[in-house]
Write a structure and sequence with these properties.
alpha+beta; globular
């Protein structure tokens, strides 16, 4: 893990190689930027429920590692739904789903003061729920049923740490 970045991974295959060799693969990291949402892939809920499915544990465990490596950030966990169902119902369902992720993180030792649960319901689509001909688009619906993380601020500890660093830099510049 690199401080200030989301981790990333990639698979490399040795299929077809006939001799031992060193393989190199560039794996880009995404910077933790303020107010930039990142979809948490592989966070799943049962249909019409807010309970996290077990398949979500690997992704959420990595999220715990990210938050532990970046103790000075405050994050929003935002959950979204597709457009099936009543708007108000979807809003409440997405809020309960976001709260499920926050509960998982708290149980894993992340300070509640660094976590904000936010349900967006069906208000922020990233894919179409229906095809142009009006038929259902299951792939689009699945993409819309998601949870995202967004850095929304810094903790007092992080702000004080930066202030101390600036003070030290100013002293160095003044020759103290």
């Amino acid at each position: 893990l690199k401080d200030g970045y989301f981790p990333n991974d990639a698979t490399v295959s040795t299929m077809g190689l006939k001799r031992s060799d060193t393989l190199f693969r560039e794996i880009p990291l995404k910077k933790l930027e303020l107010n930039q949402s990142i979809v948490l892939k592989d966070v799943y809920y049962d249909f019409d429920k807010s309970t996290l499915r077990e398949e979500s544990n690997n992704t959420l465990s990595r999220l715990v590692d990210i938050l532990n490596s970046n103790p000075g950030i405050i994050v929003e966990l935002g959950s979204h739904t597709d457009s099936k169902g009543d708007d108000m119902y979807n809003q409440k369902l997405s809020q309960r789903r976001a709260e499920s992720v926050v509960r998982y993180l708290k149980k894993s030792g992340i300070d509640k003061g660094r976590l904000v649960a936010k349900g967006y319901g069906e208000t922020q689509f990233i894919a179409e729920n229906t095809n142009p001909d009006g038929s259902d688009n299951p792939e689009g619906r699945q993409l819309n049923r998601r949870t995202e993380i967004k850095v929304i601020g810094k903790t007092e500890v992080e702000i004080k740490k930066k202030a101390v660093s600036l003070d030290d830099a100013q002293k160095d510049a003044e020759g103290e």
